[in-house]
Amino acid sequence: MITINPEETKTKDLHQFLLGIVAPRPIAFVSTVDENGVPNLAPYSFFNAFSSNPPIVVFSSNRRVLDNTTKDTLHNIEKTGEAVINAVSHSIVRQMAVSSIQFPRGVNEFEKSGLTPVPSDLVAPPRVKESPAHLECRMEEIKTLGKHGGAGHLIICRVLRVHLDENVVDDNRINPHKIDLMGRMGRAYYTRASGDAIHTIVQPVTRLSIGFDQLPDHVKHSPNLTGNELGLLAGLEKWPDKAEAREKISGELLKRIDAAEGPYRIQSIHLLAKRSLAGGNPEEAARILANF
Q1: Which of 20, 140, 180, 259 lies 20 to 30 angstroms, CA to CA, from 216?
Q2: What's the gap between Cα 271 and its chain centre?
């Protein structure tokens, strides 16, 4: 393992290590206006939702590592107390990248990026028409974390109104494949949160599971089962006894279990269970493993 001491590491290097580890991150595409009404548009990947009641989102506008200057977004929201956070879908990611260029203060990034401003309902900053989702926000607090390059300003915002493209919503829930969001990683790396990148992990949290510690020793220490496969088994509510397991196993599968004999019996049973786990059936896998 590489060990890194933040106090002995250059800020530019520590910055990239943190961004590479804390990833992927959602992107807040923030529109603001200055005290004269001039729009600004900039992306921030130090961003997340922290409460739904009240609805609170937080993003950080960091001091630039290179010269310790602050950004127009911070100036604008300090002056007006308002912002719109627009979601970044794959369809606008390159235009978002253009808006990240450090244009001089007063330059309208809507014009530079070719994106379309549309009026908000409750705040002065415009929304990005091409974005699939908008959060109209009022600034609640700005928490300054330091005075040196790389230091963040946590901008805590209350969501006043949400706008959603109806084409990304199914059954009153957002479809991740349709909203097609982009995530930020370290350096120039991004990730696209749709298609094969989406994984469904169902684990009931209100019902107790047996946990890893209650798995049989031959399962816990299996050289054939991965940590994720053991996690599927540990998430079950109960472990079957052998008699119960044999009653519920299909005849053909039971024949294969009983045919496994000799020094390789345990390996054969574990590999049979592995196939059931790969097929998304941890209950059947547990019944197979209960036969050893």
Answers
A1: 259
A2: 33
